[in-house]
Specification:
Blueprint (H helix, E strand, L loop, with lengths): L3 E7 L3 E5 L3 H10 L9 E6 L9 H7 L12 E4 L12 E7 L5 E4 L13 E7 L4 E4 L3 H9 L10 E6 L21 H13 L5 E5 L10 E9 L2 E6 L3 H7 L1 H6 L4
Antiparallel strand pairs: 1-2, 1-3, 2-4, 3-5, 5-6, 7-8, 7-9, 8-10, 9-11, 11-12
Length: 254
Amino acid sequence: MTTHYYLSVSPVEALIASQLTPTEFGSYMATGSKNGSHERIIFIEIEGNFGDYFDWNYARERCVVHSDGQPKHSLWLSVYRVLENVPNEVLGSLYLTTKDGRTLELSRGELGAPPKRDFWVYQELCPLTPLVVSSLPPAEFCAFLTAETSHVRVPKVLIADLKVVDFSNLEDTGNIGAAYDRNIEHLKDCVEAVTTNPDKPAKNVERSVNAFGYQIISSGIYVGSGSDIVFYPMPSTDEIRRDHYDWGRSAMII
C-alpha cells in the first residue's frame, strides 16, 4: 500500500504518515471511534523523504499493513515546529474536513492581485491561532508575520482570509456563522486602529480560535514565509452547491 504523508495544521500541528487516502484519512481523523473526536480537520498532503528533520526511516519501518490486512491509519512523526520545516515546494492539495468526516480538496492556485479593501480579517491557523484585523492583503500579511526584522515573528504561517462584516448592515452580513457575534464593538475598534494608524498594520481581535467555520472563508487559505506564498483558493458557493453539495451541507455553507 502507498504511504501518504499529511501535514496537519488544525486543530493540531503534526506530521502524520498513513496508508489511507486523503478522503479516508479526513474521515478517520474527524470521527475515529478510538479518540472519540468530532471536529474539523485541516491538513495538506505532502511529498515525503526530504531533508533530515523528520525520521523517514521510522515511517517506512512502522507505517505498514496490520496483520489482519488493514491499512495503517496513522503514524505520528512529529508534533513540534512541523510547518516551518516543510518546504512549500512539497505541499500538495489542502483538505478541509467537516465534523462528520466529509472532506473537500483545495488545489494550489495562482496568487493574483488582491481586491481593494480598507481592511482584512484573518484567522491564523498554524502555528498560532489568533483572529486578526489587518490593513495588509494576504501575501503582505504573511510577509509581515514572518519578517526577520520583526521583534515578534514566526518562521512560517498558515492563515485563512475571512469574509468581512458590513458594519453598516449588520442584519444582512451573509453566511458568516458566529465569528463576529460576541464583541462587534471590539472588532470595530480593531478595524479603526489599523485603518487610521499606518504604524499599526495588524491588531489581534481574539488570541485563539473561537468560532471559525469553513463558511466564513473568503478568498482561501495562504501558507507563507517571507515572499514564498502558496495559495489555496476557496470554491464559490455556487461551485460548492454544484460539485460538492454534501460537503457544503455538512460545512453549513448551503
